[in-house]
């Protein structure tokens, strides 16, 4: 369990550093060891508490675990797609030139699957935006953060 927690925390740490570098793409960012340590501690406490709460919840209310977890996961999975459909943007064609429309759809589904999996256990530092050619929203507004918080809490 410790190795699993460490690997998940390391993945979240790398996503955080990547999000910082993507957001400040115009600047040369060097992250110091103290910043790595702070992000590592922050993500480890964040993920560990969520896993403990999920274990306690599942031990008391065993029948409700699967519906709550699936509702939370599918909320995060469909949230970028709902925003994409509401924006009425054309389907992204330039993700990879070698992919067909079906291949692009599969890649976007796998990307949103990964995004939903990350958001199940920790707050994502990036916002997936399917109507943007970069697929990542570099600036988060108040509405976006509020909506993601509501989905995150499973309300």
From TrEMBL:
<dbReference type="GO" id="GO:0005886">
    <property type="term" value="C:plasma membrane"/>
</dbReference>
<comment type="similarity">
    <text>Belongs to the XK family.</text>
</comment>
<keyword id="KW-0472">Membrane</keyword>
<dbReference type="Pfam" id="PF09815">
    <property type="entry name" value="XK-related"/>
</dbReference>
<feature type="transmembrane region" description="Helical">
    <location>
        <begin position="102"/>
        <end position="126"/>
    </location>
</feature>
<keyword id="KW-0812">Transmembrane</keyword>
<keyword id="KW-1133">Transmembrane helix</keyword>
<protein>
    <recommendedName>
        <fullName>XK-related protein</fullName>
    </recommendedName>
</protein>
<dbReference type="InterPro" id="IPR018629">
    <property type="entry name" value="XK-rel"/>
</dbReference>
<feature type="transmembrane region" description="Helical">
    <location>
        <begin position="52"/>
        <end position="82"/>
    </location>
</feature>
<dbReference type="InterPro" id="IPR051773">
    <property type="entry name" value="XK-related_adapter"/>
</dbReference>
């Amino acid at each position: 369990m410790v190795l699993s927690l460490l690997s998940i925390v390391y993945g979240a740490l790398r996503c955080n550093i990547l999000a910082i570098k993507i957001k400040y793409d115009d600047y040369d960012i060097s992250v110091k060891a103290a910043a790595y340590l702070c992000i590592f501690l922050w993500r480890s406490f964040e993920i560990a508490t969520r896993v403990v709460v999920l274990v306690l919840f599942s031990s008391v209310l065993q029948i409700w675990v699967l519906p709550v977890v699936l509702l939370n996961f599918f909320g995060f999975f469909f949230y970028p797609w709902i925003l994409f459909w509401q924006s009425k943007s054309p389907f992204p064609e330039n993700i990879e030139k070698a992919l067909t429309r079906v291949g692009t759809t599969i890649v976007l589904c796998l990307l949103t699957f990964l995004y939903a999996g990350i958001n199940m256990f920790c707050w994502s530092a990036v916002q997936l935006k399917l109507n943007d050619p970069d697929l990542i929203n570099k600036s988060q507004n108040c509405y976006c953060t509020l909506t993601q918080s509501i989905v995150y809490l499973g309300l």
